[in-house]
Design a protein that fits this description.
11 strands; alpha/beta; 22% helix; 4 helices; two-stranded antiparallel ribbon; Rossmann fold
């Protein structure tokens, strides 16, 4: 049985897939800047309406504590959108165990600096690059397909996405591949979305995730594709 975990707050739902397809279990964890709880709550409802998936959540009001993180133990995928949290060890252990087990991860925007220094350093390895600063919070950019990546499953049905505030990162690790780049007034197109492998697990990170990104159908499609891809599950077979 596959499981998806969305990291934004914690909540897990179980359902039975039809036609013998294994259920993907996702746990969403969210707290912090850019209204992740509100955006991910709406996204969760839309995903459940279209697909037979089991989703749980850990949504917090502060970065000091998150409820129900123990549900990550049974999740196949973690969706995480947090910023500079300072969680107690008895909660952090569930997040660390998820990435140490090589389970699927979809990380959004501020998750690149979602923890304190030591865990941020480890999570940079999980993502395949280290966050080096926000740059401009408002400068517009368009996330377009990176050269040679048009057929990547995460980009299936995804068009250019208008967003703002591309983040700065170190050079991607050898294990990571940019699948979208930011087209802007910069001379060099910075990676906007990339994929990585960590301890055998698939990881997708995107610099996008502002509240205005979520109503964009292409952005929602990107996240949906990413969840099924990192969970190594066929979304078409789980459509309602």
């Amino acid at each position: 049985m596959f499981r998806i975990v969305l990291a934004i707050g914690l909540m897990v739902i179980t359902s039975t897939a039809q036609a013998g397809e294994k259920l993907l279990r996702v746990h969403i964890v969210g707290v912090g800047e850019y209204k992740p709880v509100e955006s991910l709550t709406e996204f969760k409802a839309a995903l459940e309406k279209l697909y037979r998936v089991g989703i749980t959540t850990s949504f917090g009001k502060s970065g000091k504590t998150l409820p129900s993180l123990e549900q990550l133990k049974t999740a196949d995928v973690m969706v995480i959108f947090i910023r500079r949290t300072d969680l107690p060890e008895d909660q952090l252990k569930f997040i660390r165990s998820h990435w140490d087990a090589g389970k699927g991860i979809v990380a959004l925007r501020t998750a690149s600096h979602g923890f304190q220094e030591a865990d941020n350093k480890t999570f940079s390895q999980v993502m395949g690059a280290s966050y080096t600063g926000p740059g401009s919070y408002t400068a517009p950019f368009k996330a377009i397909t990176a050269e040679g990546q048009a057929k990547h499953p995460v980009l299936n049905g995804v068009g250019p996405i208008a967003s703002r505030g591309i983040y700065n990162f170190t050079k991607l690790a050898d294990t990571a591949t940019a699948i979208q780049v930011a087209e802007s007034d910069r001379k060099i197109k910075a990676p906007a979305t990339w994929v990585n492998t960590y301890k055998g697990g698939r990881v997708v990170y995107t610099s996008m995730g502002s509240p205005e990104d979520f109503p964009n159908a292409d952005f929602r499609r990107l996240l949906t594709n990413a969840i099924f891809w990192v969970g190594q599950s066929d979304g078409d077979k789980l459509k309602r």
